[in-house]
Amino acid sequence: MRIKVRHETRYTYDEPASDALQLLRMTPRPHEGQFVRRWRVTVDADARLDRSEDAYGNITHLVFLHGPLTQATITIEGEVDTRDTNGFLRGGVERQPARLFLRETALTRLTPSLRRFARETSAGQGGDALATLHALNRGIHKAMAFAIGSTKPETTAGEAFEGKKGICQDFAHIMLATARALGLPARYVSGYYLRTDRIDQEAGHAWAEVHVPRLGWIAFDPAHGICTTERHVRVAIGCDAREAAAVRGARVGGGAEGLDVAIHVEQGRAMIQE
Question: Hey, how many other C-beta atoms are within 10 angstroms of the C-beta on 12?
């Protein structure tokens, strides 16, 4: 499947900002099941882009915006060819050992209710790791209501689980916390998802990858209750949403800031060979 992505982030300032800095994790890497045909980052203001990668192997861009600045738009667009691998991740860049992703973070801190949910689910599957993860994935999807605006970026896995509602970030954090409770390394993944009902989206997508003994990394999308498919475009990883955030930034001056995000994810047209 060919997937076209356009992600536009527009900043406006009610007073001129002297300078601004944005860190982008918005460029996907190829792996088995994902081939990046084209991808580019553009800025409509006086800026310098420095491409690098972080400790996890995510491709990053540091965007240095030079003022005086009243508005700036960062646009990411490209095409990716994808293939369904039943959630198995192979051929990816691994800069850290799997055990690093056992690390608990503030957003994925284990609570008694999350620990109980993990243990009860594992017991119901006879302790089989893969079966337990599939059951956790389905269980989170069933227990949680997807509700935009019900949580905040700083909402923890435990808070979202108690409230029984959230967005894809919260679903992924719960999957991370419960998998780690069972001794399985788990990491957050940010990316895009090709929906069947519309092209325009409010935000990118997020899911979890869990390292299973003898099998490697497997991707679970609890917001949909499935493993990842050819509709997922994998972009960045981290121990939680903060570490895999698409955009993080700072500025000098500028007064109040306005932020508008427009994301379009649609199926592209592959060339037909005759």
Answer: 15
